[in-house]
## 1
Amino acid sequence: MSAPLYNRDILALAVATADYLPLVDARHRVSRRAPLCGSAIILDLDTDDAGRIARIGMHVEACALGQASAALLARHAPGLGLTELRAARDGIASWFAGAGDRPDWPGFDLLAPAQGYPARHGAILLPFDAAIAALEERAAAA
């Protein structure tokens, strides 16, 4: 039997986005929307001098899976740069497509049941896409 798509752990992660409130003084702010499901995120991000993520804040309007993904990103992205974040996002997308192993992003095992639900993939990738866009903006300005 497969794991349920929505469970207590997913819901606990979803509400954890409240721990990452928008950053009033963030250097980078991006908005993204997942076209298939309509999930949306406003992601605030600060970086250190080397371009690694220092702080994340966000406002997420998504299903519980999208919110859970955003919380996992916020918890584990600090210290990472654009290359690492792109690799993580690409690994998740490849796995969703059935072309790779389950990503080793911390906590991603909780999102594993969503692999069989392509309509949810955009919401799960959305926080990663927003963070990548913010880091690309930072790189372009440097």
## 2
Amino acid sequence: MLKVIRADDSTMTAPEPGLRRQVMATSEPMMLVRHRMEAGWVGAAHSHPHEQLIYILSGEIALTVDGETYTLLAGDSVMVPGDVVHQASAAVASEVLDVFTPAREDYR
């Protein structure tokens, strides 16, 4: 039997100002996460051991990886390798899907 996870804004958490998160489908080797960023949100530069696939559902984000900044628009995708310092920001309200492998224990 499959467990269907509905996109439900009421279940989103607010891990930091301007960012909302919903953990969606997950298993031990991977995790799907929906993020909504408010206009003007700037995330902290960070790294983690997980590989991260990013798909932009709406809006536009700036993603800085190893000092180089990329503008990602709705429909764009990118893969950030594990243990690489990266930082995202959103000049406009944006929504993205992230896939992490392995699953992030700190998001559960």
## 3
Amino acid sequence: MSDQKQSSRNGILSLTIKDKAVLYSAYMPFLDNGGLFVPTNKVYSLGDEVFMLLTLMDESEKIPISGKVVWVTPLGAQGNRIAGIGVQFSEQDVSANAKIENHLAGTLSSDRPTHTM
């Protein structure tokens, strides 16, 4: 079992977000440096270091992001919640956070609840 957990830590997450509504629901602006909810069935623990390649909207460039797991929604969670992890961006990824906030300009101050709440 520890082998499976170890391999999930070393894997690269790939996340493609094709529209603004999905980005808005995945974005975690309340985290220092920002973060995203990443749907996954892999097992992670709080504090795990992760690396992901993020593709936003119709951009061809993949944004490399390193971060740590700060939120876990396990498989079979109550309320039919999607299994996944919340990844807090590292301090080196402020440009990725700025790019996300650019895409979400004007929607971050809305009262619509996010996916993670």
